[in-house]
Write a structure and sequence with these properties.
By secondary structure, this protein is of the alpha/beta class. The chain contains six helices and 13 strands. The strands form three sheets. It has a six-stranded mixed beta sheet with strand order 2-1-3-4-6-7.
């Protein structure tokens, strides 16, 4: 079986693949441009230490009968009889892009991954096996990825141990229950202060490390919010303009949201590794 691995999800599959070296054909590794960490190098090192030398996707010696794609975001053009995919959602919900981020922003209490037999439509193929786990929102994406990694390892191992009958085990998805998780770009990192404080906190956690972090703007400066908490405000606000600060204490500024209030506990300038921003003026508005 050939492997197509990318990003932090690909690392999880690679950990299992080295246990089944005799079943592994060619391995193609790519970086995930959405992650700020270079898991590409970590995957390469893991494979090479175990005697597996990755190849380029366009090399002619991709000759296995089947392949497995994990975290892979490109078209697989080789003529395989079976293409297996591990998608980090409980299909048929969240087909498409960034399903785990979407699930965290929705406050889902059950997450997981699904092993499918790919067909000619993205994430629509029949399901071979799924693996799920419970969480208590809000959940940081780093913690969710660690648990998803466990799911990917479980499903990768299941595939290797059942490779000869995996395609036969596949059951069609219930397409009437399907939803789509849309693609994301730079604009999707910006905080929408018209949302509730609870929703904004879910958002902040969902795009934190290893992603670029939730951003907002303060006096034309780009601020990355790494940590926050929902707070209660006892005195009614007569003119609750979203994004305005209502107070600043020794922890951080308290910001008016579309519903409720959010205290910002860790703000950085420009990037998640930027200098800590100390906000002391109440007469300040985030945009």
């Amino acid at each position: 079986m050939d492997l197509f691995l990318s990003g932090i999800r690909g690392v999880s599959a690679a950990k299992v693949a080295v246990e089944y070296r005799d079943l592994v054909g060619s391995v193609v590794v790519a970086n995930d441009s959405g992650e700020i960490c270079d898991h590409y190098l970590a995957t390469l090192q893991l494979l090479k230490l175990n005697g597996i030398v990755p190849v380029n996707a366009d090399e002619s010696h991709l000759q296995s009968d089947s392949c497995l794609a994990v975290g892979w975001k490109r078209m697989i053009k080789s003529d395989y009889s079976s293409i297996f995919v591990i998608h980090d959602s409980l299909l048929p919900r969240y087909r498409g892009w960034n399903p785990l981020v979407t699930a965290l922003q929705n406050g889902d209490k059950v997450l997981g991954a699904t092993l499918i037999l790919a067909d000619d439509q993205v994430d629509c193929g029949p399901i071979i096996k799924s693996h799920q786990f419970a969480v208590s929102p809000p959940v940081r994406i780093s913690d969710a990825l660690q648990s998803i990694g466990n799911s990917i390892e479980f499903l990768t191992r299941y595939l290797f141990e059942n490779i000869n009958q995996a395609a036969v085990l596949a059951v069609p998805q219930n397409h009437s229950l399907a939803t789509i998780s849309l693609w994301r770009d730079e604009d999707d990192y910006q905080i929408d202060w018209t949302l509730s404080a609870e929703k904004i906190l879910l958002f902040i956690y969902s795009v934190s490390h290893p992603y670029k972090g939730a951003c907002t703007f303060l006096d034309s400066r780009k601020i990355i919010v790494l940590d926050a908490e929902v707070v209660q405000w006892a005195v009614p606000i007569e003119n609750p303009a979203v994004g305005k600060m209502v107070a600043v204490d020794n922890v951080g500024p308290v910001v008016v949201c579309g519903e409720g209030f959010l205290r910002l506990k860790d703000c950085r300038l420009d990037s998640i590794d930027g200098e800590i921003v100390q906000i002391k003026r109440v007469r300040t508005r985030f945009k």
